[in-house]
Specification:
This protein has 341 residues and is mostly helical. Helices cover 47% and strands 4% of the residues.
Length: 341
C-alpha cells in the first residue's frame, strides 16, 4: 500500500502539478489511512484491495482515531478527497478493480462569508504593529501584511517570494508561483512597494540574511514560515481589538478582494488580481455594506432616469492599473493615489 501511495503522490506533483501544500496534506492523510487499515485488519502488511467501504467511511468520519471522535464537515471532506483521488488513480491505472469510495457523499459545510477587515481597520492594524513591535519586526510584518492586502497574494505565495523577484521600479513581482503551480507576474502598488523598500533597510541585520534569497526572513535567518506568521498575526489582531472577528493572515486576501469590489472594480478584474480560475470563486466577495444595500433598494422607489441618492464617484470608473488599486488612497485631491493598505 505504501508504494501505491508514493506513486500517487508523484503523480500529483509531476502530472497534476498540485501545490506543495496539497500534496503534503494528502501524503499525511494517506499515510494515516494506511496505518488505520493495518490496525483495523490486525496485519503488518496490507494492499489497497483489502480496503472496503466500511473502512473508508470510518476513516473519513473519525480520521482513524481510536476514541471515535467526530470532526468538522470540512475536515471530513478533505479526507474524502484524498481517498477518492487515490482510489480513482488506482482504478484508472488498472491497479485496482473497484473504488471503495464510490457513492460516498461530501459532508454539507455551512456557508459563511470570509473574514475580512475594512481599509480603515487595516490601517489601525498596521498602527498596532508599529506600536507594539521593534522597528525591524514592524518593518517586516507590515511589509508582508501590505503585500497580501494590496496584491491579494495567498500567504504561501507571499512567503515564497525571493528578493530577485521584486521589481520596485516596475511595481511588479516577477514569476510568482500561484496556486496550481503556475507562474505569473503580480502587480504591486506604491503602498506595497514603499513597505518592501523600508523592510529591505532592516533585512541585512537578520541572521544569515546575505546567504538567503528569501524576501521575508525569520529570526534564525530562514524563510519565514506560515505558522510563525499566524502566531504574530493573531497577537496583532487581539491587540487591535479585532479578537471577535474570524481573522487569519488569509483574511488579508479576502480584505483585498472586498475593498476592490466596494470601490467599484469589476468582478473579472478582481478575479484576475486574485488569480481565480472561476468567477464563482470570486462572487463570495460581493457582500456589499449595509449602506450600499439600502441605496440600491431605495433606487427601486424612484422614477426611471431620476438622479441616484448618491453621486457616483468618478474615481471608481478609472482603468485598473497598479496606481488605481492603491486601496488606501482615499481623498478627492489625490492624483495619482500614493497610499495603500
Amino acid at each position: 500500500m505504501d508504494a501505491g501511495i508514493r506513486e500517487y503522490l508523484d503523480h500529483l506533483v509531476l502530472d497534476r502539478e498540485r501545490a506543495p501544500n496539497t500534496t503534503d496534506r494528502y501524503a499525511m492523510l494517506l499515510e494515516r489511512f494506511a496505518a488505520f487499515v493495518r490496525r483495523d485488519l490486525g496485519r503488518p502488511a496490507v494492499v489497497p484491495a483489502d480496503v472496503d467501504r466500511r473502512m473508508a467511511e470510518l476513516f473519513i468520519r473519525h480520521g482513524g482515531s481510536v476514541d471515535g471522535a467526530h470532526h468538522a464537515p470540512s475536515t471530513r471532506n478533505v479526507r474524502l478527497a484524498a481517498l477518492r483521488g487515490w482510489f480513482r488513480y488506482l482504478v484508472t491505472t488498472g491497479r485496482l478493480d473497484r473504488d471503495p469510495t464510490v457513492g460516498l457523499l461530501s459532508a454539507k459545510v455551512k456557508a459563511h462569508s470570509p473574514g475580512y477587515v475594512t481599509e480603515e481597520e487595516f490601517e489601525h492594524l498596521c498602527a498596532v504593529v508599529a506600536a507594539h513591535a521593534t522597528e525591524s519586526y514592524a518593518a517586516r510584518d507590515e511589509a508582508l501584511f501590505k503585500v497580501m492586502m494590496n496584491c491579494g497574494l495567498r500567504i504561501s505565495e507571499a512567503l515564497s517570494l525571493d528578493i530577485a523577484q521584486v521589481d520596485i521600479e516596475a511595481l511588479c513581482f516577477h514569476g510568482v508561483m500561484r496556486k496550481g503551480r503556475t507562474r505569473e507576474d503580480v502587480v504591486m502598488n506604491r503602498a506595497a512597494a514603499d513597505a518592501i523598500r523600508r523592510w529591505l533597510l532592516y533585512r541585512p541585520g537578520y541572521k544569515s540574511a546575505a546567504a538567503s534569497g528569501a524576501l521575508f526572513l525569520s529570526d534564525r535567518g530562514r524563510r519565514w514560515s506560515a505558522r510563525a506568521v499566524q502566531r504574530s498575526f493573531r497577537r496583532y489582531v487581539d491587540l487591535a481589538g479585532f479578537g471577535h472577528k474570524r481573522l487569519t493572515p488569509h483574511s488579508l486576501r479576502h480584505s483585498c478582494a472586498t475593498a476592490l469590489i466596494r470601490r467599484g472594480v469589476g468582478i473579472e478584474t478582481v478575479a484576475d488580481v486574485l488569480a481565480h480560475r472561476r468567477l464563482d470563486t470570486t462572487r463570495i466577495y460581493l457582500h456589499l455594506g449595509s449602506q450600499r444595500k439600502l441605496e440600491a433598494v431605495a433606487l427601486l422607489g424612484t422614477k426611471p432616469g431620476a438622479k441616484s441618492l448618491k453621486r457616483r464617484n468618478p474615481r471608481l470608473t478609472r482603468p485598473i492599473t497598479p496606481e488605481t488599486i492603491a486601496l488606501g488612497s482615499a481623498g478627492k485631491d489625490a492624483s495619482p493615489p500614493t497610499r495603500g493598505y
